[in-house]
Each structure stands twice: as structure tokens, then as C-alpha cells.
Amino acid sequence: MATITVIRRIGAPAQLVFQAVADPRRFAQAIAGVTELRFLSQATAGLGTRFRQTRERNGKAMTMDFEITEYEPVSRVRIHNVTHDTEWDSVFSLRPTKTGTQLTVQMTTHSEKPLARVLMPLICLLIRKPVARDIDAVKTWCEAVGV
Fold first, then answer.
1. By the 8 A CB rule, do 77 and 68 touch?
2. What are residue 88's DSSP bridge partners?
3. What 3-state class would DSSP assign to 44?
4. Are strands 34-39 and 60-72 parallel, antiparallel or unpaired?
């Protein structure tokens, strides 16, 4: 198991920040590289929403399936996916501040495969910067929309 944590202070209301991270359509607007978003459930937002997202990174397309497994409006959303036999559990927690919102993202990995368990801390080190870039993009998007 390994964990990535990214914390950002965003100059926008918690409601807007929550929508940006909890609504797959808004998240796709805020971050770079999403080329396709398809819903796999009747729900398109909220608990139980399942969706498939294709992103292009470094010239390569990567498609992943996600499910919203926890949804507490304006407070917390948990999104789960499995990639290459590794579970990724991402929790987005929001806390209103005097000047906006503090967003904390904690991504935890888990795999039953011994090699994956050994490599996960290294993989998390490698993807921490792209995850931080996504959260910075959410910050930029929220602050631009919130004006």
C-alpha cells in the first residue's frame, strides 16, 4: 500500500470546488487531456455513478473505469478504480476557509500482487506530480469560474 496526498487552498466557494471534483463532467473540463467521458451507470453524478474516462498523457491514450463510492455534498467524495490489478482509492476532502476552500486529495493504492506491492511506493512517487498538476488545474478552473 502507498499513498499520495496533495493539499491546495483554492480561492473559490466549497460548493464550486466540490462540483469540480465530484462531477465527472466538470472534472473533465477542469483537467487537461480528457478525450472521452462515458457513463456506465444511469446516474451521472453522486453515489454509485460509474464512468469511463479516456485521457491522453505523453501522447498515449489511457482508459480507466471509475465509481463514486462515497458522496457527502460539499464535504467529501471518494472515487475508486482498478488499474492493472491495483486498486486506487481517491478521497477528496473539502474544508471551507475564510478565503475559499482547502482541498485535500488522498490517493491510496492496494494490490494483492507481491511485485505491485513492492513497486507501488515508486509508482506513487512518479505519479505524484501529474496528480498535483490535475489538482492545480482544478484550482485554476475553480478560481476562474468563481470570479
1. yes
2. 81, 109
3. coil
4. unpaired
**Cell of residue 88, nine digits:** 486506487
Q: How far apart are CA 85 and CA 117, in angstroms?
A: 11
Report the alpha-carbon distance of residue 146 to residue 93 in Å, rounded.
Answer: 19
3 state SS of 30: helix
Q: DSSP string of 48-66?
A: T-EEEEEEEETTEEEEEEE
Q: What phi-psi label fits residue 57: left (phi over 0), alpha (psi between -120 and 50 degrees) or beta?
A: beta
Cβ atoms of 63 and 40 closer than 8 Å: no
State pLDDT tens for residues 31-69: 989 999 999 999 999 999 999 999 998 889 999 999 999
**Tens-place pLDDT, residues 87-130:** 999 999 999 999 999 999 999 998 888 877 788 888 888 889 99
Q: How far is CA 81 from CA 10, 90, 109, 143, 145, in A?
A: 26, 9, 10, 28, 28
Give residue for cell 472515487: 79
User: Which grid coordinates are listed for 71?
Assistant: 458522496
